[in-house]
Amino acid sequence: MIVNPSKLPYELPNDMVDISTSKPPAPLLPQIRDHIKQLKQEFEEFEYGKYLDVYRDSYAMFKDFYRYRRYIEKDLLHRLTKWRGDFNLANGLLHEFGRKRRKKTDE
User: Fold this and answer.
1) Which residues on neighbouring strands pair with residue 60, listed in sequence order?
2) What per-residue string of b and e applies to 78-96 under the rule 16 or more CB within 10 Å gives b?
3) What is the pTM of this model?
4) Cα–Cα distance between 3 and 8 in angstroms, integer?
5) Residue 76 has pLDDT above 60, yes or no
């Protein structure tokens, strides 16, 4: 193996072994629920239902309009993509933290 002298391998000092971090604090379930409520209001207010489908009130995805995306206003497409990502993330967290909370109470 040829080593390039200008690109020496990075070495950690010996005292920096087994570095671990703790988990950040989890958001509170009421905060997540409030965010979902706000997102649902935006969905109705800005009529995102024309472009997005929401399944089981917990997962959003674009309707089948990929052929027409070029003709949709870029700002609207950006807002739709952001809304969909925020909605799916919030519902995923609600499901994950709700399940963890139920496990703790079951034990």
Assistant:
1) 54
2) eebeebbebbeebbebbee
3) 0.71
4) 8
5) yes
